[in-house]
Amino acid sequence: MDNASLVSRCASYMKSLCETIPERAVGSEGNRRAAAFIEQELAAAGWEPERQEFQAMDWINGGASLTAEGRSFEVSVSPYSVGFEGTGKLLAISSMEELAAAELRGRILLLHNELAKEQLMPKNFVFYNPDKHQRIIALLEQGSPAALVCATSRNAALAGGVYPFPLIEDGDFDIPSVYMTEEEGQKLLAFEGADVSLKSFSTRVPGTGANIMARKGSPTGKRIVITAHLDAKKGTPGAIDNATGVVVLLLLAQLLKDYDGDHCIEIVALNGEDYYAVPGQMLYVARNQGKFEDMLLNINIDGAGYLEGPSAYSTYQLPQNLLQQVRDVFDGSDSIVEGPQWVQGDHSIFVQFGCPAVALSSLWFTENIDTQTITHTEKDTLGIVDNSRVVEIALALNKLSRTI
Ligand SMILES: [Zn+2]
To answer: Could you give the CA distance from residue 15 to residue 357 in angstroms, rounded to a whole number?
Structure first.
């Protein structure tokens, strides 16, 4: 396939994933449509796709309202929270010490200041979960408050540019919660001890999801696992996070359709990187217990194809010979440069299990990961994508897969 046809195919895939299918949050109908689309395109390219299915809930945000002594405050429902309708005495908590000491039962808590500086990792997120977060969650669950109002500060690094950010985004946590800006929290603080009334119309909807994967080459050969997450955060079209990654997989499947080398090339659209329970990744890890040693390399694509600047690769625990091969391929491409290492992607899972990995992204994304305000928002649309960057990555990975 020539370059022009690859670019036009890329554009058509991007449109299908970001516009025809309006959302890809795990558990949603759109997520299942995206998985079926990937399956269909892999099959069309001559691969035999398999699915790894799991249970995952979707969530409907029906809005929320909070009033204290006749005054209303602006609040948003924490994603995947249970709903709530009731009144309780407001208790403000700003630190771990206060949280441990206070009688929480039946109160509506205003979590602010120190306690609301960074998003709490979901209870069952195993790959990274600081003790401090686990302790806050445990104290809340033991204390059994009626509901939580979280006043969060500006923190692009931990919330992907969203302000205010939900302190809690966890479908496994069953205390109802809403969140608000720091400024709104300051105003609400004046009503400590007063009865406040909270309504949150949030609904959990049971659903399913799946990883989609396919293999070529020698079934007994060392595995080269090429991954991209197919899900997107709720409320975003997820163009560079991460439809571009999925499109690299689909283009690569076509470029490698005749591959019959010594290695086993495994293409995996993982499902859950932007979802509290990372179900697809957990399932993939469970199915590969003890098998990470058989993997030669993971290549993960996330945040690629941004319209300004080059693409960037970074390497993790590569043996010298592999590192040289990777450098030779990417250095031969004008638009792919070596960029900083970063941890917020699925390559980190492979690294944790001792598998060498390469992450591919946009230089813009890796350099501004802590300050950018596009991913995880409605601004992550087709308009910020350069399709030729996506095609260049697929071409380079085709070359790399055949060189190793
Ligand atoms: Zn992502």
So the answer is: 29
> Which pLDDT band, with edges at 50, 70 and 90, does 209 fall under?
very high
Residue-wise pLDDT for 19-50, tens only, equals: 999 999 999 999 999 999 999 999 999 999 99
Ligand 1 centroid to residue 401 C-alpha, Å: 23
- CA torsion 248-253-259-262 (nearest 10°) is 60
CB contact at 8 A, 237 and 18? yes
Q: Give the residue among 251, 255, 268 at the shortest CA–CA distance from 215.
A: 268
Q: How far is the CA of 344 from the centre of ligand 1 (A)?
A: 8
Residue 225 CA, ligand 1 centroid: distance in Å: 17
Task: Report the distance separating Cα 256 and Cα 268, nearest Å.
Answer: 14
Ligand 1 centroid from CA 277, angstroms: 14
Distance 367 CA to ligand 1 centre (A): 15
Kindly tell me if the per-residue pLDDT of 324 is higher than 80. Answer: yes
Q: What is the pLDDT of residues 123-137, one digit of tens each?
A: 988 888 999 999 999
299 alpha carbon – ligand 1 mean position (Å): 14
Pick the CATH number of 3-57+207-403 from 3.20.20.70, 3.20.20.140, 3.40.630.10, 1.10.3720.10: 3.40.630.10
Instruction: Kindly state the DSSP code that residue 300 receives in the 8-state scheme.
Output: E
Q: What separation in Å is there between the alpha carbon of 264 and the centre of ligand 1?
A: 25
For residue 155, pLDDT over 80 is answered with no
Residue labelled with tokens 């302790």: 135
Residue 159 pLDDT more than 60? no
Please list, in sequence order, all residues whose beta carbon lies within 8 angstroms of the beta carbon of residue 195, skipping any fewer than 6 positions away.
68, 69, 87, 88, 89, 90
Distance 345 CA to ligand 1 centre (A): 6
- CA 70 to centroid of ligand 1, rounded, Å: 42
Q: Report helix, strand and coil shares of the chain as percent, to nearest 5.
A: 35, 25, 40
**Among the four given CATH numbers 3.60.20.10, 3.10.350.10, 3.50.30.30, 3.20.20.20, the one describing domain 59-205:** 3.50.30.30
Residues 6+ apart with CB under 8 A from 320: none
Amino acid 366: pLDDT = 93
Residue 92 has pLDDT above 60, yes or no: yes
Average of pLDDT values for 163-173? 93
**Residue 379 in this model has a pLDDT that exceeds 80:** yes
Please report the pLDDT score of residue 154 as a whole number. 73
